[in-house]
Amino acid sequence: MVTVVIPARMASSRYPGKPLVPILGLPMLEHVRRRAVLARGVDLVAVATCDEAIMQSVISYGGNAVMTKPTHERCTDRVAEAMMKLPGEIIAMVNGDEPLLDPLSITQVITPLLENAELDVVNLLSPLEAEGDYLNTNIVKAVCDQAGSVIYLTRAPIPFFRHRLSVPVYRQTGIMAFRTTFLSRFSMLPETPLEITESVDMLRVLRVQRAVTRPLRAGVVGYGYMGQIRHRNIANNPDTELAAICDPFCPDAVSALKVPTYQLWQDLISDDLDVVFVCTPNNLIPEVAIEALRNNLHVFCEKPPGRNLGDIERIRAAELLSPRCKLQFGFNHRHHPGIIEGKAIIDSGTLGDILTLRGTYGKSGGYDFHKSWRNDPALGGGGILLDQGLHMLDLFCFFVGEFSDVMGMRGILAYEIPVEDNAVLILRTPRGQLAQLHSSATSWKHTFRLEIGCERGYIVVTGLLSKTGSYGRETLVIGRQHAPGDRSAVGNPREETIYYDTDLSWDIEVAHLVDCIRHDKPVFSGASGDALRAMKIIDTVYQLPPIKRTLA
Questions:
Q1: Helix (H, G, I), strand (E, B), or coil: what is residue 379?
Q2: pLDDT, tens digit, for every residue of 267-312?
Q3: Same domain (yes/no): 67, 204
Q4: Is 420 exposed, middle or buried (0-12, 13-18, 19+ CB in 10 A)?
Q5: Host domain of residue 84
């Protein structure tokens, strides 16, 4: 399936509001969209935008549009985010300021990918003939080798004609096509210095194809469920490679990987590594993380960040003593597509300020739930609130920040375990916003639901894209308050429902850490401060013991 995505935003640096400028009675963007629909071989055309006005304009003409984050500086990054919400194995990108777009050019750019499975990306070029265009810095020029592959892209007038030979000069048309697998790898890479200098995002493609930096050597401590996921993330990222594993409890799986293996995690972190992924039971997390930081290694820790508040405080103290090292925690729910798009909508201000949050996160339990190491205080530190509710608390903080008031109750309602199998929390921010959480191991059906009520509407995220699919299809519902005077369907407003089928959250986390390492940036998502904030809430609730249900 081939999908055309047209990135568009109102905040154009050279012409603000350009996508909706009328031309012969239609917005410029609508001319582009309609001409893209005419292209042979295209199954779907959609606009990717961060502006509500563009979204509503496209919908009003019967088109498809998806909302993206307002922070994208590069159109390819906007298209990569939109790709997560759209079907298709091939994505063609078309600039939204080409009202005279020839539909044939889209067919030309997708055909090589349809005919050659070894190609990942096609950048449609055209001959540049006018001298004025050659000198125009708004036009991106391309230098190609004799086989037609792009060597470099620049706004400068190249090649320089010291001798007048018959050398073709090309310009970038702004029409490109990618395999979705390639585009996801592309979007996970940080911007390159040349890309930033030239303001040409396709220069990042050359980096994907010709990576010149040594991949970061990664070690994994713990090769259970999460360790194996992190192995896949490392393999998926072109800037990382698996270099060592430690897990004495699954020797067969580890030995088949053909990398150095260790019985002791202390030996692994003494290896020639750059970053360590800590995927162990909670009791080992602080010990491994602290020692890795002392060895000047970057660290990725799964959640929770230890068994209690003291553990994360010890890890943070070690982090301060190793300022060159990056430390990140696995709060991947922030990067699920429904959460990403919901956050973008709320940040845009179209729904107004957040008033309330309500979260339900439940496990099915199971006949052997009581045997899990997570219910052993010595290993896990707490019950379902620490194990799973922590994710929802992080999302609460992700949307509204700190909470000043925390009240909670824990119960042992169904299982013979020493920790809670249910917890209910009520929270309030310094601004008076309210939140409610039910974390449960007795839902009997895997359940995820996050409701956010705002001044002028609401969003609801249900389901989670997971390996088993047991939480249901990930869905985002956006509802808007009735307009003044609108008395139709009172109490049942119009809703927009968006479904998601691709989860890149695990890969996005690792890409963020790699970006911070490569460019010496502070970790801003899943930072130790985020972990500390959520653990403080849990610590408050854990001050009182769980109450066991009495039999009638």
A1: coil
A2: 999 888 999 999 999 999 999 999 999 988 999 999 999 999 999 9
A3: yes
A4: buried
A5: 2-125+173-209
